[in-house]
Amino acid sequence: MAKTSSIEKNNLRKKLSKQYAGKRAKLKALSKDQSVSPEERFGAQLKLAALPRNSSPGRVRNRCEVSGRPRGYYRKLKMSRIALRELGNFGQVPGMVKSSW
Fold it and tell me: Digits of tens for pLDDT over the chain (101 positions)?
């Protein structure tokens, strides 16, 4: 189990990235638009830099929904390999059976 503080910090980052997604997208589009004057583009870059760092989607870490583990994460299932194995052994993942030969 991951530290609760790490999990909560990541949840805050997810919330902030959703909250600022629209504003961030507009500022990024404005800063990359070649038809706009360089002063306006630079101003957009400064506004983008003034946003909270944790509002960037690149700072969000993929973590297991069950245990909070950051490594060995399967995106499709949103859980780590260890949690997947445990739930698979108990028959709680549809279509997954423990292999034996």
Answer: 889 999 999 999 999 999 999 999 999 999 999 999 999 999 999 999 999 999 999 999 999 999 999 999 999 999 999 999 999 999 899 988 877 77
What pTM value is reported for the model?
0.83
HSE of 93 in the Cβ direction (CA atoms, 13 Å)?
16
Domains of the chain with bracketed CATH: 1-61 (1.10.287.1480), 62-92 (no CATH)
Helix (H) or strand (E) holding 12: helix 4-19
| Angle ∠(20,26,29) on CA atoms, nearest 5 | 135
User: What span, in angstroms and rounded, lies between the C-alpha atoms of 33 and 20?
Assistant: 20
Is residue 17 within 8 Å of 53, Cβ to Cβ?
A: no
